[in-house]
Design brief:
The complex is a heterodimer. Chain A is mostly helical. Chain A is built from 7 helices and 2 strands; from the N terminus they run βααβααααα. In chain A, α1 packs antiparallel against α2, α4 runs antiparallel to α5 and α5 packs antiparallel against α6. The longest helix of chain A has 23 residues. In chain B, α3 packs parallel to α5. The longest helix of chain B has 34 residues. The radius of gyration of chain B is 23 Å and the shape is globular. Chain B is built from 23 helices and 2 strands. The chains are: A mainly alpha, B mainly alpha. The interface between A and B is large, with 63 and 61 residues.
Chain lengths: 170, 506
């Protein structure tokens, strides 16, 4: 299309990756019902994945033809350290969520991320993360009653304790 | 009629519903206003928390967030020259110059009142048109639904990004994701890899929060050090004379908004830009030139984008076909709450329709109230450092994805789609069509099979059916036109036509 089109670092890899995924999808879709009938359960997935293959190949060819962009690097412009680090953090958060429970994991996650991202010291991060978590907890857990994994903190007992305390005063 | 009125006012007299609409609108305004936090993000994260709620309460919150979010972007556009949402891009053209002249308060006042005017008009059209459209939609054949859904995905794909091919890929990817699980008709496994957990398919919430919550948040990390500029704010509530002066223009631009909003694939952002363009053409002698702080340039996009909300609800409720990513998410939420958007909704559950219309009116009123107050707190909230905001969004995304099914698998899916969405956005692939695809996958699949079975598996008969029915033909031509409009031949033709136009004018 455009003669002066440029490609970003890693774009070729991503385009080829999508083409591979699409090819895999066509193969799996063929396995559902083959070319049995136009109304078979496999017809729609096969059409869709075929469209994916065609479009992803066009994209890949176009990307390969484009000139690499000047003065850009993958770890600066595409995946800067902050984004890579936060991705790892949320992955760890998700892994620890069930065994450790919502409160300690979230507290730790918020504290560490604010500390690293804001670079404003331990006290600021501790204060901000406690405040954020308290707000979220009150709004979502207590007001909206969303269930979160309890983990190591005996949350229900604590809530029941306070409920009794206030209930007893009536 | 009386019944409709009763349903219409349900949310007005129930204090808890009233509060939820207010809360939703308030949250919507603020989330919409913070640059980088989109309405889509807010709706997708918050919807996951309403999963276990009763349907009326959930609807109140969703409607509020949507209405507030579309408006909220205008404030940051005026104050900071950063549109908080795509629908506020045109608002910044004249809003920011006004703020620079020290008239930020006035600009906010005018845009708020005009947003409400547009909003009311959009809701009015929704209330009048939806019953008619749904009656008409009863005559739709399966092939029409299929074509309409394909058209919606293609339009979102072609209008929102740099290339149609990438939009098509994204839409197809969404359709593929939506087809994972047991086939709804024959219960045959599709893309399950023998894993029982995949029988129910990939949670739509996980895809949506991943693409619009996590991916957005990660992208925002790239601009973490940008700070906001402070503005002086004076009088906010505009004078009656000012409102009356812009009323004729606002009615025109609202109409543009409703129509654009009701078309599949086009939403508030395009409506706002078109309305701005219209205002520029019809305003012969603006007090201040456009682009330097003309109030007309503020009135037009603001009325249009809020009018588009009412418009967008028309295809969503009557056909079950979303116009953009936000309405796709709302349709998903309606499914979760056991509602089935489509022509039968109006017949089976007219109460739900009138309830939604009533809640929209209420949200519009709250928008007016919150819009004209609380500017000072607002400036503080917008200045919240991203270092705080982003971890918070990521946390809410995880909790939201978990809360829907109490399943940690959904959280991993969400993270996976978050990372995929991040790279897709960076490399210029649109993510809107993915969500539309996931939502519409089943509709297209089922209607395709119904259509082809009714033609006894003959593609030729199906094609003849399309060509001989006026409605199908129009839809089919529209689909074809989208492809043609991307070919070099069309671009050359367009250039020639416009060139002769200009010559003729000269």
């Amino acid at each position: 299309m455009n003669k002066d089109m440029t490609r970003k670092p890693g774009e070729v890899f991503f385009a080829l990756f999508l083409s591979l995924v699409s090819l895999g999808a066509v193969w799996k879709a063929y396995g559902i019902a083959g070319f049995e009938a136009l109304s078979s359960p496999g017809a729609f997935p096969m059409t869709v994945s075929a469209i994916m293959v065609i479009s992803s190949l066009i994209i890949a060819v176009k990307t390969l033809r484009a000139k690499p962009a000047q003065d850009t690097s993958f770890f600066k412009d595409i995946l800067p350290p902050a984004a890579a680090m936060m991705t790892v953090f949320i992955l760890l958060y998700a892994i620890a969520l069930k065994p450790l429970g919502f409160l300690p994991t979230s507290q730790l996650f918020l504290f560490v991320s604010v500390l690293v991202l804001s670079r404003r010291g331990v006290w600021f991060s501790a204060w901000v993360s406690v405040l954020c978590l308290a707000t979220v907890y009150v709004i979502f857990r207590l007001v909206f009653s969303v269930l979160m994994p309890e983990g190591v903190v005996p949350e229900r007992e604590i809530i029941a304790f306070f409920a009794n305390l206030f209930g007893g005063e009536k | 009629m009386l019944e409709a009125l009763q349903y219409f006012t349900t949310s007005w007299f129930d204090p808890s519903l009233l509060l939820l609409v207010a809360l939703g609108t308030f949250a919507g305004i603020y989330v919409g206003a913070i640059p980088g936090l989109s309405v889509t993000m807010a709706v997708s994260i918050l919807i996951s928390f309403t999963f276990s709620w009763e349907v009326h309460s959930a609807l109140c919150l969703i409607v509020g967030i949507y209405m507030g979010g579309v408006y909220g972007g205008s404030r940051t556009a005026i104050l900071l020259n950063i549109p908080g949402a795509p629908s506020a891009i045109a608002t910044a053209f004249d809003g920011y110059p006004l703020a620079q002249k020290g008239q930020a308060g006035e600009a906010i006042g005018v845009s708020t009142v005009m947003s409400a005017v547009g909003g009311f008009l959009g809701i009015f059209v929704l209330a009048v048109a939806a019953p008619l459209v749904s009656e008409f939609a009863l005559t739709f054949q399966p092939r029409d639904y299929m074509l309409l859904a394909i058209l919606g995905i293609l339009l979102v794909g072609s209008l929102s990004g740099e290339s149609l091919v990438k939009g098509i890929f994204a839409g197809a990817l969404g359709l593929l994701i939506g087809s994972v699980g047991l086939d709804p008709l024959t219960a045959q496994e599709r893309f399950t890899f023998g894993v029982v957990e995949l029988w129910g398919g990939i949670s739509f919430i996980a895809v949506m929060i991943g693409m619009f919550g996590v991916a957005e948040a990660l992208i925002q990390l790239r601009h973490i050090d940008k700070t906001a500029v402070k503005q002086k704010i004076g009088r906010i509530i505009p004078s009656w004379a000012a409102v009356r002066k812009y009323l004729p223009l606002s009615l025109q631009t609202s109409s543009i908004g409703v129509i654009i909003g009701a078309l599949p694939g086009t939403g508030g952002d395009i409506a706002a830009l078109m309305a701005y363009d219209h205002a520029k053409r019809v305003t012969k002698n603006p007090e201040v030139p456009f682009g330097e702080g003309a109030k007309e340039g503020l009135v037009a996009p603001e009325t249009a984008n809020n009018a588009a909300v009412g418009g967008a609800f028309i295809p969503m409720i009557t056909l079950g076909i979303p116009g953009d990513a936000v309405t796709a998410i709302i349709i998903g939420a309606l499914y979760i709450h056991g509602l089935n958007p489509g022509p039968m909704l109006m017949i089976d559950q007219p109460d739900m329709f009138w309830f939604i219309v009533g809640a929209l009116v209420l949200a519009n009123i709250f928008m007016l109230i919150f819009g004209l107050t609380g500017i000072r707190i607002f400036v503080k909230i917008v200045e919240l450092p991203r270092a705080m905001l982003i971890p918070l969004i990521l946390m809410l995304s995880i909790v939201g994805a978990f809360a829907v099914n109490n399943s940690i698998t959904d959280v991993y899916w969400m993270l996976g789609f978050g990372v995929l969405g991040y790279f897709m956005k960076l490399y210029g692939y649109q993510v809107g069509p993915v969500i539309l695809g996931v939502i519409l996958s089943r509709l297209i699949d089922e209607n395709w099979r119904r259509a082809i079975i009714s033609e006894r598996e003959s593609l030729w008969d199906l094609f003849m059916g399309i060509v001989t029915s006026p409605l199908s033909l129009v839809l089919f031509i529209a689909v074809v036109l989208i492809f043609v409009s991307q070919t070099p031949l069309w671009v050359r033709m367009k250039r020639r036509i416009f060139a002769t136009d200009k010559e003729a004018q000269e």
